Fold:
Amino acid sequence: MAEGEDGGDAGLEAVFKRLIGATGPISVAHYMAEANAHYYDRADPFGSAGDFITAPEISQMFGEMIGLWLADQWQRAGKPQLCHFVEFGPGRGTLASDALRAGDKFGFHPQVHMIEGSSRLRQAQQLLLPGATWHDGLDSVPREGPLLIVANEFLDALPVRQIVRTEQGWRERVVVHNGERFLPVAGARPMDSAVPAELMDSPPGTILESCPAASGMAYEIAMRLKAQGGAALFIDYGYGAPQTGSTLQAVRAHEKVDPFADPGLCDLTALVDFAQLKQIALAGDVECLGPVGQGDWLMALGIAQRAAALAQSQPTKAQDIMTALDRLVSPDQMGALFKVIAYRGPGWPEGAGFGG
Ligand code: SAH
Structure:
């Protein structure tokens, strides 16, 4: 692939331009899916030298709390000998490694399955989790033995579809190139039938966003939990009640940038619709716990006590540990915008930290 002037990969920009030139505008969902596939295969985006930082990269305590939650579920379900830890979008593998180390203390030794689209990140994960198996999706994950699933900041990376109200009615939001840059516009074909009746008469410019890929995966997870038992934890930033407007955003070098500039060179995300995840649990007939704020959930699981213990054993790092704790739990940091929701299979216990 060609190197761009900024040292980045100019290949995708050229591909999009050719595609749009040959066949017309592409949907926002198509744009986001290709841009992110490209982005995650290009470089390690995490950490202070990268583009953004995620909770497991802030502190080992985050993965440890997830490991405790999963091990607790497994223990209270009678410690099934055959069971599978499944992570969607494991990034560097840090969360899985911290979670499995914490679970190990309780005798929780699941088979480890990683669902990862990026070959570059698969390599990074392999260093931390040499015994794991990699998959493109849930389909190849074994169908026997309960699944203990986690997805942190995964659903937000999946492509969203947007439809926009125009004077002529609802249209899909599509991406064109105006000779200088990519930009989103209303497409040509009517989309009125995709709009719920109560929103039909929204003012022109109103955008409705949905994430069919996230809904599809959540439903598939619900079906698997129903069939083989287990529980799933989704942690992401998002909203709890239906809303309108585009939430598509791009981050590069820790700054927000235009999502339609430099496709493939910045991380594209959209807020996760937690109300929809609840609906899917209902439709899939599995129990849904939450959503609750990440801060409340981590505090209920004992992250403050863990921080105090870590700080005591490493006095020179005490300040850093407390700063990390604050980033993860404070409502003005990640504590409130990030939310946790869980699904549990039939007969699986109430999960800790959901106030039930
Ligand atoms: N969970 C990690 C990484 C979050 S970034 C953390 O919290 O640090 C999103 C992750 O999802 C990356 O590993 C990315 O490669 C992966 N990903 C994004 N879209 C994907 C898809 N469609 N299929 C599989 N993996 C995907």
In short: The first strand starts at residue 26 and ends at 27. The pocket of S-adenosyl-L-homocysteine is lined by residues 36, 40, 54, 56-57, 89-91, 95, 115-118, 121, 152-154, 157-158 (CB under 6 Å). The two ends are 52 Å apart (CA to CA).
